[in-house]
Structures are given as C-alpha cells and as structure tokens.
C-alpha cells in the first residue's frame, strides 16, 4: 500500500512540474518512506582507530541538501557552516589559524586555489578570502545560487550556479571573464557536480547526464560526452543527474550518474574507455587500474574492477543508511552514514574492519584523506581528524 501511495505522490509531483523547472526532494527518490535504515551489524574489529583532533565549526548544515565538505589547501583545512562562518585550521594539529563570519547562507563547502579561499553563497555571490589571514579580497555576484565549491587555477576562478551556468572569474578582482551555460532540465536533483580542473581544462557533469570539458582560459567547449541516457516512464525515472564529485587520475575521468552509468573517460578526447550500469548520487573514489569504489542509491558499497567494469565485491549491510561517497585510506575504504558513524571496510573483500561514531548527526560529505589523516565533516558542525592505521 505504501509503495502504491508513494507512486501516486511521485506521479502527482511530476505532473505539477510540467510547466516549470523543479528540484526533487530526497524523499521522492528513495525508499525511506517504505523501509527504515538497516540496523548496524556486529563484527569483530580488526583496527584500533585514533582520533587526532576534533573541532566545532559552528551550526553545520541543517538542510538535507547541504554538502559542506571541508577544503584542504597547503597545510590548512577550511570548513564553513550554513551561515557562512569560515574556519581555517592547521590540518595536522587542529589549531585555529583564523575565522571570519561572512553572514551569508551557503549550501556548499569552500573551495580555493591561487592563494585564495573561495566561498559560494546561496545568494549568488562568490567571495574570495586571503588563504593565510582570512582577510576579504573581493566579492562578485553571479546570476543564481552557487551550488558547488568554486575553484581557482591559472588566474581563473570557476564557479557553477543553479541556472546551469559555469563562470570564469579573474582571481585578481572577480571580474567575469567568460560564461558557459546549458539549459537546466524540467526536473533535477538538488546540487551540482563540482568542477574539476586538470591542466588547462575545466570538466563538469550536468543534470542531463553529459560530461563537458571547457578551456579554462575562455570557456570554449573542448569536448562533451553523454555518460547517461534519460529513459523511463516517469519524470523521476528519467533523472540522470551527475551531481557527485569527479575523480581524475592518470589521464582518466571517473564519473557516475544517477539512473545512469559508472564510466571511465579519457581526459583529452572525452572517449569512454569503459562503462557499466550504476546509479549513484553520492559518488566514488578510485585506485587507478585496480578498482573503483562506489556508493549506490541503496547505500550498497561496491568495488568495481577498473578497466573492465566487472564487480569485485559488494557490501550490502548499510542499506538505506544514506552513506557518503567512499574514500580510500590505505588498505581500507571509508564511508560515513546518517547517524554519524564512519565505517571502515577492507579493500580486499568489503568486510567491516572498524567503526567509529564521530558525531550525533548525519555525515553527508565525502571524507577527505591526506598525509595519513582522514577528515570527516558532520552536519552538526563537528570536524574530526582520524589517523589512518
């Protein structure tokens, strides 16, 4: 009965959006109304985890759509809360370098590059701060809310907005140097794939399932490729958004779409090297030429052989726990979940080897690993560093 009711609600919602663009709430694209998250299973821990430091970054991210991932730059880790309170910490010790209250609403984490820390606001502004001091450098208003962390390279800041526009701004004063825009589908998931910068290219995934490479200097299209084709009987079924972070390693772009495919794409030409059917909103991580690790729409964690797309293993015990994208930490794969737990899986077979609760609220952001530490940002504003065994 519940499934039938949910189907009617989805149909009604889809019909109501036939004349305008809309954002799909999470409850319409999951089974959370039907079944609860899986209970955590017992296992014998094989690792002893050590918390190195933990800090409170403000009010965190209250909205179900916010992904306030921290940003690593040089020796620092930058975090932000939903009201624009920015903190810079020493990534090794957790010592506060500086903080500033911007008093702007945000739905995405900070970005940076070229000596700047870059903040995108829900009001459509990009704000540039000095990396070392946190002092204000410039701000520029764009056409709509910024949904992904701005990034800078080669004198250009790249920012994505909710209207399908990618903008290139001067790192010096924020002047808009170029714009690239694609139409936004009638219905799409909330969010946008963060732009990836490699050499002189900016690469991003779009809500129509296409991957696009632009020149960072002038915004001209270098190539574009479809990695997911819209199909299905309802508007919900036809969603093929690429919302998760791209991973670029050794000349290959690894990408996964909702209701689409997992694919490896050549950076220079856009040619698809291999692909397999997969649906994910969370994302992936990659050990090149070995395996791609993916969290799918059911919160199953997969290991997929790089090169063939064949499945190596699948961990199903985290069903409906809204796990984050996986991240590789040494011999292990980590995911966070809706109750603030971080699960450590063996890269060999996906078995649980450790578990730690770092917060009382959900972890939505992909953990970040660097120099033997893994950093986890929870929606209650807790930022924790754990040593990789």
Topology at a glance:
Layout: H1 2-16, E1 22-24, E2 50-56, E3 71-73, E4 76-80, E5 85-90, E6 96-101, E7 111-113, E8 116-120, E9 125-130, E10 136-141, E11 151-153, E12 156-160, E13 165-170, E14 176-181, E15 187-189, E16 196-198, E17 201-205, E18 210-215, E19 221-226, E20 247-249, E21 252-256, E22 260-266, E23 272-278, E24 283-287, E25 291-295, E26 301-305, E27 311-315, E28 327-329, E29 332-336, E30 341-346, E31 352-357, E32 368-370, E33 373-377, E34 382-387
Parallel strand pairs: 1-15
Antiparallel strand pairs: 2-34, 3-4, 4-5, 5-6, 7-8, 8-9, 9-10, 11-12, 12-13, 13-14, 16-17, 17-18, 18-19, 20-21, 21-22, 22-23, 24-25, 25-26, 26-27, 28-29, 29-30, 30-31, 32-33, 33-34
What is the strand content?
Answer: 35-45%
CATH topology of the domain at 33-63 and 291-389: Methylamine Dehydrogenase, Chain H
Low-confidence stretches: 1-21
Quickly name the level 1 CATH class of the domain at 33-63 and 291-389: Mainly Beta
Report the count of strand segments: 34
Alpha-beta content class = mainly beta
State the end-to-end CA separation. Answer: 47 Å
The Rg value, from CA coordinates, equals 20 Å
Give the overall shape: globular
CATH superfamily caption of the domain at 33-63 and 291-389: YVTN repeat-like/Quinoprotein amine dehydrogenase
